[in-house]
Amino acid sequence: MAVEYVKYVDVTKCDGCRACMVACKNWNDLPAEPQDFLGTMQSHANVSADTWNVLTFVEHENSQGNLDYLFRHSSCYHCADAACEKVCPENAISYTDTGAVVIDQDTCVGCGYCVQNCPFDVVQLKTYKDENGKEYRKAHKCTMCTDRIDEGLQPACVTTCHTGAMEFGEKDAIIKKAEQRVKEIKERYPNANVYNPQGVGGTHTIYVLAEKPSVYGMPEKPKVPTSAVLWKDYAQPIGKLMVGGVTMALAGAFVANKFFDKDGKVGPHDDGGEDHE
To answer: Does the predicted model carry a pTM greater than 0.85?
Structure first.
């Protein structure tokens, strides 16, 4: 098995310069997105189909009663057990040998099930028009710059970070580094922690946080929806053994519309085409 790599983000070293956002836009040739003023230093409310990483800003009163400005590089977490991969009816989402979660744009049909089930609200849909003016959609998100990694390079966002807040390396070494860093900053940040949630199998973006995840707008204990697990690990394999491909696809679409819910709840859904920002 290939060596797994992860991105390391130490938020205590981030100065909010947004160079990571610019580098991502430039390398991936992503268009600019005019934004309304949010009333804060933050430029975008969330990641989108055309903005794959966002620098978030949070004003927080710490345990000593002082005001902290908390910055965080926010992008796809690249879960080891990714809900988006589980629910994709076209198998358009897969894992690379190094651990990144990627979307095959040629296979994606824009159904939106990945958007509905991502625990982090990262995957987003973009609408296009074909030569006849007919609209169609594709799912987009951070690719961890797999094209760069394949050439022995690091993700664009990592290479441009001037404070050393981001690094990229082998998973085991990065996790040890994160754990050691938390020990070093505990006196200043009593709530410091390593964010590598096991409910999604761990992630390939490892954070050193100064405060609890919820302070940064991150889920405390994200997990793969139960409906996604049942579909991918049980219903789909059994169905393929029992029925033909066409029947399975129709049944799959019906089950997906009825049961795919990121909270694991059972209930009807719409066509899955709405953005969740």
So the answer is: no
